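@channel anyone free to eyeball this complex?
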Amino acid sequence: MTDRADQRARWREAAGADAPDWRNALFVAPYLFVFATLLAFPLFWGVWLSFHKADFFSLGPFIGFGNYVRLFHDAVFLQAIENTFYFVLLTVPALALIGLFLALALNANTRLATILRSLFFSSSVLSVTIVTLIWRFVFIPQYGMLAAIFSLFGAEPPAFLTDPNLAMIAIAITTIWWCVGLPMMLFLAALQQIPGDVYEAAALDNASRWRTLVSITLPSIRRTFVLVAIVEIVMQFQLFGQAWLMTRGGPNNLTRPIVLHIYDIAFRRWDVGLGAAASEVLFALILVAAMLQYLASRRGDEP
Amino acid sequence: MTAQIDVTNVSKSFGSLRVIENLSLSIPAREFVVFLGPSGCGKSTLLRMIAGLESVDEGEIAINGERIDHLPPGKRGVAMVFQSYALYPHMTVRQNMAFGLENVGVAKATIAARVADAARMLEIGHLLDRKPGQLSGGQRQRVAIGRAVVKEPDAFLFDEPLSNLDAALRARTRIELAQLHQRLRSTMIFVTHDQVEAMTLADRIVVMNNRRIEQIGSPMAIYDRPATRFVAGFVGTPQMNFLDIRGAAARPEGLEVRLGDDFAVRTRVDPAAAERVATFGIRAEAVQVRPAGQGDADGVVDVLERLGDRALAHVRLADGAVVVANEIGQTRLSVGDRVALRFDADKAHLFDAAGVAFHSRSAP
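replying in thread with the prediction:
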């Protein structure tokens, strides 16, 4: 040991063995810097902004909950909240169930399963622009794929992107196609964690395929189900690109999600304070939804 | 409640790798049979083929005369205890034990009674409402056995069930398994690479090596009259001593072999084998340590293993070969001592180049 190391060891001894060595803080400093400046600070700055009348050039007067009051008197914002909930309801259960189904079907060590796994995941790597372009080709009236299929049977295709009842469903279908790769992969990873001898024990216990699925497989991946639900809730509440690129929020604001509304308020109308308030509302909604899902899944789960 | 199991000309390959080669075996009802062998000898595969967890490439497996190798595992009337226990992690102990019975539609009251019986027998009654994650290794082991017992199978299959337990628990569970067999009188097949488990539990041991059966016999027959050099070396602690044979001569009472730096041991093996014998084998307890010059061969004590009730003296002979001798009681030897070794020729074994054994003509 060098003299300096010796000396340091003595200091540490004097300060007690558990005394923190502050030089270790250097190792976490880069991350702490990024966390503080890009995550923590904007979070609190956003809250602070939401209590002000502000634009991009100046922080105006403090108006307390004024922005929030305005928001909840804004029929379009309330419509956007409703739209977003509808969208989450359309996509999250479908994503979880389809992802689970694909994972169960493709959890095999065959070449075909490997190819199909990559195929189903491949849509996830596309950008939202490409995805919406593909699906606009499907949905577009007269020339789209659906139109072609319907005309084979001499039927009139539904106007998916302009019908008030169908527009959000079209966006949901697009989103499910785009996003199903991640839940599938998470479920596959969970399925592969189940030890094979448990299935062998079940086979010796005369369990049918259905009974094995319900009594062995599904309980074993319950935690992953919760994970998928929470991840997807958080992600799908933030719908923006698909709605913006496919319908611009129309018809009649029926596919306008919260994020699109925030974008309109803050970046097109330059009402940054109001936009910040709307963002906080979205943040609270996501937090509550994810927590509810988490708590619901915890019930009946013994230690 | 018990089964005669017949395995006839069974072969098995995984891809191009042959793991079982034309193997036949008959296990009478109520017998406790142990498949003993080193890793990769095919013993677990054979057990899993009887259980139905591996397909049979060639040959037949029958239980009570009825061919079962095409039946799914659940329809064969066997229960299996896995090395890792394979309990259902999200079910309670009670549900774990009831699962197999529920699947075949046994009445609820019967299930409850059988689970209660098994729990009492295995002393796991207080654990019935816990989940496997809350149990110790030994408790999980008991639950796994309980799950097999409640099914009242024709045959129990154990796949190295003791290898995940610590030494003390392993010894205790071994005795309990023997008692379980006494009580249930079911056919039991037990796979292990631990010869102590095999010797203590088995009515008969099936020693396997390299895809085939080396010997089938009672533990003492396997120990006293090993059929091959592999069996002789694999069974018994310490391992049997092997010495190269330099020459053999027929004598009226048996074959005399010349070993090491040319000392002779007069065995009672049939002299007809004189041309074939290549290796001399003798267990440590048949080698006696004597003062130098008063035995068959002289040597120097190299290592001394004191085991309390006895000691193992590793003695290096003049030609460099090391022979282990068993000293009963507290030895007065110390490392470096010059001693003589006396071989109990009645208990010597001779092996030919292919490993086939020759034993004393009279039972030792």
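from a first look: The interface with chain B takes residues 195, 197-198, 200-208, 211, 215-216, 219-220, 222, 302 of chain A (CB under 8 Å).
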